[in-house]
Amino acid sequence: MLAWHHRVVPRVSQDQLDARRQEILGAARACFARHGYEGATVRRLEEATGLSRGAIFHHFRDKDSLFLAVAEDDAAAMVATVARNGLVQVMRDLLAGATSPDTTGWLGSQLEVSRRLRTDPAFARRWAERSASLAEATRERLARQRDAGVLRDDVPIETLARFLELAYDGLVLQLAMARPAGDLGPVLDLVEEAVRRPGH
């Protein structure tokens, strides 16, 4: 009878797995931004991450799941910033980092989300609940500001939220088209003033 000897394989810690996952997301974000969803082939994803397809898809079921994870990661970071500092601060952060690789990668993934929402009904359904959490964070923050007397009270919160979302979408488009942004700081000041109660 053969005796089986089990070699002890060191377990990879959850921290190591999370770190590897974040590395993959960061490299994939840049790859999707540079090449678009269709152009970000598995070979390009392997080159960007420095990992084999087996290693990448150990963490993510397929390319679609990887793209959705990138987009969700971006949306979660945005929800946290909106809840803490509001949508105008997200816009200010975007503007401040407009030329950094992180921001350009993020912009690219935002545009790719927009494109897929128009062309891919299955993606649109999966994305609906993610965008709902961002909308909810925006409206909750606006409600808190109104309760604190900072926000104008002559316009419904829903209208203010849609106004801010339009301003945000316009800024993303402006940056994505690589138009000379000039100094958009005063424009964002105006957006912020438009939703505030006079004197605040």
UniProtKB/TrEMBL annotation:
Transmembrane segments: none annotated. Keywords: DNA-binding. It comes from the Bacteria. Pfam families: TetR_N. InterPro entries: DNA-bd_HTH_TetR-type_CS (IPR023772), Homeodomain-like_sf (IPR009057), HTH-type_TetR-like_transc_reg (IPR050109), HTH_TetR (IPR001647), Tet_transcr_reg_TetR-rel_C_sf (IPR036271). Residues 41-60 bind DNA. Residues 18-78 form the HTH tetR-type domain. This is TetR family transcriptional regulator. It comes from Plantactinospora endophytica. The lineage of its organism: Bacteria, Bacillati, Actinomycetota, Actinomycetes, Micromonosporales.
